[in-house]
């Protein structure tokens, strides 16, 4: 199953000030497979940045829950 993810912060439609923004979310892959990477686009898919996976890493083959991720990105 391809990795599925959701953004939890900032909320949809939220106004964010210019400067550094922290984007947070969660991802899952299904079938007990570990999420090893989450790519995030803040410009409609023109460019992508690799988010940092947070929390403990699961035992291989035992990844039955979501993985938390976050990305620090500049916003103009």
UniProtKB/TrEMBL annotation:
The record's GO CC annotations read: mitochondrion
Any one GO molecular function term:
heme binding
Family matches, as Pfam families: Mo-co_dimer (PF03404)
Q: Which domain of life is it from?
A: Eukaryota
Keywords on record: Metal-binding, Molybdenum, Oxidoreductase
Is Amino-acid biosynthesis included in the keywords of this UniProt record? no
Identify the cofactor(s): Mo-molybdopterin
Q: Where is the Moybdenum cofactor oxidoreductase dimerisation domain?
A: 1-75
The record ties this protein, via SUPFAM superfamilies, to: E set domains
A Gene Ontology annotation in the biological process aspect, one of them, is: sulfur compound metabolic process
Q: Which residues form a coiled coil?
A: none
Can you say what this protein is called? SUOX oxidase
What is the protein's species of origin? Chunga burmeisteri (Black-legged seriema)
């Amino acid at each position: 199953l391809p990795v599925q993810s959701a953004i939890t912060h900032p909320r949809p439609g939220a106004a964010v000030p210019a400067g550094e923004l922290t984007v947070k979310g969660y991802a899952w892959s299904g079938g007990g497979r570990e999420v090893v990477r989450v790519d995030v686009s803040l410009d409609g898919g023109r460019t992508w940045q690799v988010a940092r996976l947070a929390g403990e890493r699961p035992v291989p083959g035992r990844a039955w829950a979501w993985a938390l991720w976050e990305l620090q990105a500049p916003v103009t």
